[in-house]
Amino acid sequence: MDSEIVVAAIAFCGTLFGTFGGIVTASKLTDYRLVQLEKKVEKHNGIIERTYVLEEKMRVANHRIDDLELLEREAER
Q1: pTM (predicted TM-score)
Q2: Closest CA to 44 of 59, 57, 36, 31
Q3: Could you tell me the CA-to-CA distances from 2 to 11, 12, 13, 42 in Å, in that order?
Q4: What are the DSSP calls for 2-37, one per residue?
Q5: How far apart are CA 60 and CA 57, in angstroms?
Q6: For residues 55 and 66, what is the distance between their CA atoms, to the nearest angstrom?
């Protein structure tokens, strides 16, 4: 009977270490994936900001073109 208790204790310890090992591994993988996702989001946000700046520059350029076309039409009269 003593050997059964020892085997059960060893099995319990193996299960305990295996469980904690799995939890630690899953946690590391989750942390890694979160870091990668944060990098992608940061890159995406940079593109959005640059797009906004380009759209603003295009709006200003279009406004200036409209003004020049108006001046040209007035000069032709």
Answers
A1: 0.60
A2: 36
A3: 14, 15, 17, 60
A4: HHHHHHHHHHHHHHHHHHHHHHHHHHHHHHHHHHHH
A5: 5
A6: 16
| Residues 31-77: tens digit of each pLDDT | 999 999 999 999 999 999 999 999 999 999 999 999 999 998 888 87
Residues in the chain: 77
The residue type at 8: A
- Using CA atoms, how far apart are residues 6 and 10, in angstroms rounded to an integer? 6
Q: Count CB neighbours of 2 within 10 A.
A: 6
